[in-house]
Amino acid sequence: MLSTFLASKPNEVTPSNIGEALQQAIEIEIATIPVYLSTYYSINRTPDQSAIEAKLKAALLAKNTGTAQAYTEQQAEEKAKDLSAQIMVFANKAGASILSVVIEEMLHMSLSSNVKQALVGKPELVNKGPNVWPAYLAGHEPQFPINRAKLSQDQLYTFLQIESPAKLEGQYKNANALPYTTIGDFYDMIQGCIEKHFSDASCYDTSRPQLVPKMGYYAQNDIDTLYYDKAHNPKFENAEDSGDLVHVVDQQSALAALQEIVEQGEGHEGGHKFKVVDGVDCVDCSPFTEGSFDDKDRSELAHFDKFNELWCEMQKMEEEYKTLFGDSVDPKSFYVFDFEDNVMTADYPDIIQKVSTLTNAVYSYLYVMTQACYYAEKNTQYEIFMFGIHKSMMWILGSLCGILPSMKYIDSKGFERSAAPTFENYAFNTASSPKAQIIALFNEAAAVYPGVAYLKDRIHDLPNVPLEPYLAKPAQPILA
């Protein structure tokens, strides 16, 4: 908790508090990552289409009563095939869309960190995720809960609240940090301070290491942001011209970095917004306008509009199933794992706890390595990022998060659930290196659950980033 910042109760960004404001921005970006990742890993992007078709065909034929035949065998088969294809496309698209946003949130964290590094000094990334769930975005007015939860219209609505380009309806109260009504407005305040007070090049320390473009650190797309539409045409969710890292060396580059964050999240002026009906925010499912895009070629929707599109498509699908089947068939049952909201590792039985703890340590090491890049020499930084974060890290984390849903447990209410990755902060100790601790956790997990054993070589290939004193200090995030 940034106590001196909170004690001052500021209402604007000033030269004296811009460091705290930028740290608040960094922690807002970090807070969204476990929210989006939890939902992403709740999606089965490759469900069994044949099994879906068989269940839907049986449900359609069950509508036949007496001589009133609703569907012939052939009609039921054709309809089931069409409905199953709809499920396959939506599940894959929803996964690609949400992960594409996660990638850009990681970019936003780095862009904000670059600005802080140039103007003030080291960004703080380790142990900055929320410790208590539901969590709240620091300073957002009105406040609303954010949850680690499976895909649903309610969860997509929360995503829309996070990325909203317009202020939300609701009660406003004193914020626990620098107050703002939208994330875009918050960045606008920081930009305004930079425009007014940081025009001189001497304000920017270019000797401090940053994550810079043209080093291969950041790529808009990977195989997991690709999906195929109903005609089997491939589509990447992120456009190649929608943004990149920015090396902050002066006022112009600082403003460019912050503006990129706003445009990727909210889009350009004139894009979609909530509709207010009887004082309540409602999702607008009208066609998208030019302002909904965040890239020059208008081929990538901004975050708000990606989630808006998914919400509307999900709503349409839910309504179609309601009309066809009433309450007997839930389309989400075919492609969404049954995750428990805001589950914690302590809620799991011992075997799952060991896999979950390993997953959290690997996830937390991502931030250890990223923060270390802001202290490292250029050659060391490259090794950390390319061989740690890009290669081994993403493969390991993705694999573990893919394993957990296959592990079942009984929740406190007696229902069988799929285990979800919890994305909790893992507190590495100073007795050994974080890598050594991850290897020890892996050995414990593999001993009781051999399904993770194939990750041994990848874990041993992680770069060995030491836990320096600045990383070892207990950290309390703004978002509590």
- Based on Cα principal axes, name the global outline: globular
Summarize the amount of helix as a percent range: 40-55%
Low-confidence stretches: 472-480
SS element count, helices: 13
Q: N- to C-terminal separation?
A: 8 Å
What would you note in describing this structure?
There is one protein chain. The chain is mostly helical and 480 residues long. It folds into two domains: 340 residues, no CATH class; 138 residues. Helix content is 48%, strand content 4%. It is built from 13 helices and six strands. The strands form three sheets. It has a two-stranded antiparallel ribbon. A two-stranded antiparallel ribbon has the order 3-4. Helix 2 runs antiparallel to helix 4 and helix 3 crosses helix 4. The longest helix is centred in the N-terminal third of the chain and has 47 residues. It starts with a helix and ends in an 8-residue tail after the last helix. The C terminus is likely disordered.
